[in-house]
Amino acid sequence: MIGASTGGVRALLDVVSRLPADLAAAVFVVLHEHPLHQSRLPQLLASRGTLQASHALHGDTIVPGHIYVAPPDNHLMLGRGVVRVLRGPKESGHRPAVDALFRTAAASYGPRVIGIILTGQLDCGTAGMLSIKARGGVGIVQNPHEAEARSMPQSALDHATIDHVATLEELPALITRLVSEPAGEAPAGQVSPALMRFEGKERGTPAMFVCPECQGTVSEASLGDFTVFRCHTGHSFTLESIDTEQANEVERALWAAVRALEEGATMSKRLASTAAGDLREKFIEKAHAQARNAKVVRDLILGGLATEKTQETDDDRTR
Q1: How many Cα atoms are found within 13 Å in the side-chain-facing hemisphere of 231?
Q2: What is the Cα–Cα distance from 253 to 295, expressed in whole angstroms?
Q3: What pLDDT is recorded for position 209?
Q4: Main-chain dihedrals φ then ψ at residue 89, nearest 5 degrees
Q5: Lowest mean per-residue pLDDT among 15-24, 104-113, 146-155, 235-244
Q6: CA angle 23, 4, 68 (to 5 degrees)
Q7: How far is CA 287 from CA 153, 225, 265, 279, in A?
Q8: SS3 letters for the chain?
Q9: For residues 12-48, b (16+ Cβ closer than 10 Å) or e, as one string?
Q10: pLDDT of 310 strictly over 60
Q11: Gap between the Cα atoms of 262 and 259, Å rounded
């Protein structure tokens, strides 16, 4: 299972180009892409290496030596011996989501799963990696110092017990070796209630906010020090992703306020043009007030965006 985001195409091509033609495992890939993007990733992967690649189709039988790529705007999930492609709720703002692939693969195949997180922003993949490790699978991350965007591999390192940290040059040989070795033992006993809540199979503790996607009620569950929030319809978020989504929601609300105030100012001016006396003055004063308030909110939004951009630049310099 390979998950990637920013910089992922180059990283995937690098890894796949050196995988052997007789690899005794199927490879599943989730790359975050725009939902309307006409993805050519399977063709690129197939042309670069010796393995066949295609967009996964719902109901596909799993065949070793084949690369299954998540189609745009669809989750790639696994069942026992079968591929599932579903347009389910977004996870951490993504569809396809790395977490959905990792979680369902771990539930279906336990210690036979090798999860790999490559370059990418934020922390998508960490929750899924925790599921893989909890069910006896192997966890690998690209060396964050090499990654174009280090956040995804670094988050997994910070929160999960990772078995291998590897460069892109080291990954193909590592994958080949691990595939040739016997799988580990599945953890003894039943799946813990904490893991069931974490994976959304049981309801977690009620959270004190609503889902930024659908405004539904939200519950939270943790595994170790990593928390996942999930609404009743299935949207899920990590702390980082829900902070990002809530910030976007606030910005949308502020722009709606700007629009309403500017439209109000325009309407007040039109009313002033047809009124007389004190009523005309009242509408003029109202138009001026609405225009001033719209400018205040607009400046607040643009100032906030400029601050965020400066912070991103500073973070990049620090890295």
Answers
A1: 19
A2: 15
A3: 85
A4: -60, 145
A5: 235-244
A6: 40
A7: 52, 52, 4, 12
A8: CEEECCCHHHHHHHHHCCCCCCCCCCEEEEECCCCCCCCCHHHHHHHHCCCEEEECCCCCECCCCEEEECCCCCEEEEECCEEEEECCCCECCECCCHHHHHHHHHHHHHHHCEEEECCCCCCCCHHHHHHHHHCCCEEEEECCCCCCCCHHHHHHHHHCCCCEEECCCCHHHHHHHHHHCCCCCCCCCCCCHHHHHHCCCCCCEEEEEECCCCCCEEEEEEECCEEEEEECCCCEEEHHHHHHHHHHHHHHHHHHHHHHHHHHHHHHHHHHHHCCHHHHHHHHHHHHHHHHHHHHHHHHHHHHHHHHHHHHHHHHHHC
A9: bbbbbebbeeebebbbbbbbbbeeeeebebbebbbeb
A10: no
A11: 5
Q: Counting beta carbons within 10 angstroms of the beta carbon of residue 116, is it exposed (0 to 12), middle (13 to 18) or buried (19 or more)?
A: buried
**Amino acid code (one letter) for 286:** K
- Amino acid residing at 128: G
User: pLDDT, tens digit, for every residue of 68-115?
Assistant: 999 999 999 999 999 999 999 999 999 999 999 999 999 999 999 999
List, in sequence order, every residue forming a beta bridge with 27; answer none if it has no partner: 67
Amino acid at 249: E
Contacts of 43 (CB under 8 A, 6+ apart): 53
Q: Give residue-wise pLDDT tens across range 110-153.
A: 999 999 999 999 999 999 999 999 999 999 999 999 999 999 99
List the strands of the sheet with 52-55, edge to edge: 52-55, 66-69, 27-31, 2-4, 114-117, 138-142, 164-166
Q: What is the pLDDT of residue 306?
A: 57
pLDDT recorded at residue 147 = 97
CA–CA distance, 68 with 150 (Å, rounded to integer): 24
